[in-house]
Give the backbone structure.
Amino acid sequence: MVDMQVRQADLKDQQRLSNLVFFETRSHRHLDWRSPLEWLGNKYFWTVENGASITAALACPEEVNGIAWVRLFVHSAGFWSPENAWMVLWDLAQKDIAQAGGATVAAIAQHPWFRKVMEMAGFKNRQDIVMLEWAYQPWASREAEGIRIRQMTEADLPRVVTVDNASFDPLWHNSPETLQRALSQSLFATVAEDEQGVIGYQVTTGSNTRAHLARLAVHPSVQRRGTASVILGDLFTQLQKNGYSKLSVNTQSDNQISLNLYKKLGFLLTGESYPVYTFKVTSS
């Protein structure tokens, strides 16, 4: 292709990338606490430039060590098929990631066309994300001895990070900055604490009459004490008081503990599911 340049993106590309993201319908965006272009300046962000135009872009920044989520993949339909745009960008991406020490690159594919791209590129379907929803219903008050629920503050974040990282597989870890952003953008954010301090937390977002439980974690050392049920019972009360009648949540299809908890508390599977793909790039 004439005058094609594949390179790392930089801050000067922001306006052209913004136009590409806004006007192109085939765009994969990771569900994130940041907009895709907030990752500009990260070394794992690449573009294809054709003359004066940017016609494709890929961003998979490494937020926590060794894990790089695909935050953005977009291409101009007038220049590329999804598969060709991906391979041109992915060729450079793999080289840069390998030279930087390697990483597991992951993506949640919300669109059928992007699933085809992932499979064509050799990504493996690790698991699925499934959606559940709770609609207002009477529930019994839930308490657990020695556990208190209160509003989360920024001072709690170091302990919240510890709980988060202990509770999830490394693929799903959140960085301190991500958890700080989650708190700042939350509708309701609470912690559960006992005599040792913070042992669990939840972060919920929302608009109109619908809310979404974005994160729920209880430290493994104190699980099976009913902490998660107490956290959710308090959240249900807050939702009712503030006029929210529905609460959605997602979890991994193979996380049977979470699925059992949500179903026990009245959540129902919606039938929506999205595959999680991963690809291991080794160090060069």
